[in-house]
Design brief:
The chain is built from 19 helices and 13 strands. It is an alpha/beta fold. The structure holds uridine-5'-diphosphate-xylopyranose. Uridine-5'-diphosphate-xylopyranose binds next to α10. Uridine-5'-diphosphate-xylopyranose (UDX) binds next to α10.
């Protein structure tokens, strides 16, 4: 199949490389010349394990290339166009900004010759109702639309694209377009479907809702356990033991029950806010009002870390040296969008603390978005002379730190583990004052 991917950001670059890996001929298009330059060199413009290798091998086969938009001629004879542009949060209402989706559709309408009937596939996360509106415009030109949400996780994006948990198609109410769309995507994903990956074929609104419902559920699970952490803090309970105990019930499951400083990143926070904004527009705000609480619990965990840090420094952080381990919203990522770690670091710095932030991958991004924040790439140097260490992103190298040798670097052996990622007993034995979230103080 000849495939285009419009938008070569996180989702699009990974999707383009993976489609070439499946054997298709792929052209990735983006309006940002810098991004295209990177990708043409076989480099990813962001940190994603496995992607540079995949880009390099796909480009070596000649099946993958990248062009700066509009690239009208290159798009003219494509069978399936994927839209993978961003839908950022628009304003304080949290609604999704659809500008890039609208311009991608406009670009395709210009590029697709009259009388040609390719299939357009939406992958971006959009407010429910968007696909139906776009289908009306596209079908008027004989072009078929399928909505095919993406569930990839950063850090596992290649693996999640090449062996997803499920493949969802939202198809047109018009049987002919539905049939054509399904057949084209079945051909694109033939090898995945042959391996038995579950396929759900449904309507446009259902497909759009599947994506936000999945992310809302995941966010709710995290906030649920973080709410239990608040209860544990008030009662002396231990949220890690509690999560393990309830997780043994298969109906609950162990995953996504790690209490800590909460969720961040480019998806969960934005998606739940956009979902609430859309539900409000639809007059069904009550149905998702609980997501307000999910968001509020999540943000309260950041306050909790700031409070614990202040308490650990005898009520005043001014001038005190705080080493923040981690800036990315999670390990194996250089993404700091809505990162709890970066938020806490900034707040402590704003309160007058002498904060030093370290992270194995995210510092170049932090330098751009938080220019005033002192950064130190070397973990050992960052730890020197610290009055307090706060672990906020559970990179392997931080979890594996040896408490005895770190103790020789710091001024005071006091640690707040904002991810409940390290063994309290091990650190306490080495003389540290350890505080987790939702975990009891030392016996
Ligand atoms: C998420 C969804 O998992 C993915 O399916 C969707 O397509 C995009 O959004 P991602 O944003 O890459 O993926 O990160 P994820 O691994 O889900 O983690 C999100 C946040 O939740 C991180 O900040 C992480 O630290 C936090 N988290 C996760 C917890 O605090 N506790 C947990 O138990 C799990």
């Amino acid at each position: 199949m000849r495939i285009s991917v419009i938008g070569c950001g996180y989702l699009g670059a990974v999707h383009a490389a993976c489609m070439a890996e499946l054997g298709h001929e792929v052209i990735g298009v983006d309006v940002d010349p810098a991004k295209i330059e990177y990708l043409r060199r076989g480099e990813a413009p962001f940190f994603e394990p496995g992607l540079p290798e995949l880009l390099e091998s796909a480009m070596a086969t000649g099946r993958l290339r990248f062009e700066e938009a509009p690239a009208l001629e290159e798009l003219a004879d494509v069978n399936v166009h994927f839209i993978a542009v961003g839908t950022p949060q628009k304003d304080d209402t949290g609604a999704a900004d659809l500008t890039y989706v609208t311009s991608a559709v406009a670009l395709l309408l210009e590029a697709i010759p009259e009388g040609s009937h390719p299939v357009v596939v939406g992958k971006s996360t959009v407010p429910v109702g968007t696909a139906e509106a776009l289908a009306e415009i596209l079908e008027a030109r004989g072009i078929t639309l399928v909505w095919n949400p993406e569930f990839l996780r950063e850090g596992f994006a290649v693996q999640d694209t090449l062996s997803p948990d499920r493949i969802v198609y939202g198809v047109s109410n018009d049987p002919e377009h539905a049939q054509r769309g399904r057949a084209a995507l079945d051909e694109v994903y033939a090898s995945l479907l042959a391996s038995g990956i579950p396929q759900i074929v449904t309507t446009y609104p259902t497909a759009e809702l599947v994506k936000v419902a999945a992310n809302s559920f995941l966010a709710t699970k995290i906030s649920f356990i973080n709410a239990m952490a608040e209860l544990c803090e008030a009662t002396g309970g231990d949220v890690a033991d509690l999560a393990e105990a309830i997780g043994h019930d298969d109906r609950i499951g162990k995953k996504f029950l790690r209490a800590g400083v909460g969720f961040g990143g480019g998806c969960l926070p934005k998606d739940i806010r956009a979902f609430m904004a859309r539900a409000e527009e639809l007059g069904v705000a009550d149905a998702v009002a609980f997501l307000n609480e999910v968001d509020a619990i999540n943000l309260r965990r950041r306050d909790r870390v700031v409070d614990l840090a202040t308490k650990a420094l005898d009520g005043d952080v001014t001038g005190r040296r705080i080493t923040v381990l981690g800036a990315a919203f999670k390990p194996n990522s250089d993404d700091v969008r809505d990162s709890p770690a970066l938020d806490v670091a900034r707040r402590l710095a704003d309160m007058g603390a002498a904060v030093t932030v370290t992270d194995p991958e995210a510092l170049p991004t932090v330098r751009r978005v938080a220019p005033g924040l002192p950064l130190e790439p070397d973990t050992q140097v960052a730890l020197e002379g610290a009055d307090l260490v706060v672990l906020l992103t559970e990179w392997r190298e931080y979890v594996d730190l040896d408490p005895a040798s770190v103790r020789t670097l710091v001024a005071r052996p006091v640690l707040i583990d904002g991810r409940n990622a390290i063994d309290p007993a091990h650190w306490r034995e080495a003389g540290w004052t350890y505080t987790g979230l939702g975990r009891p103080a030392a016996p």
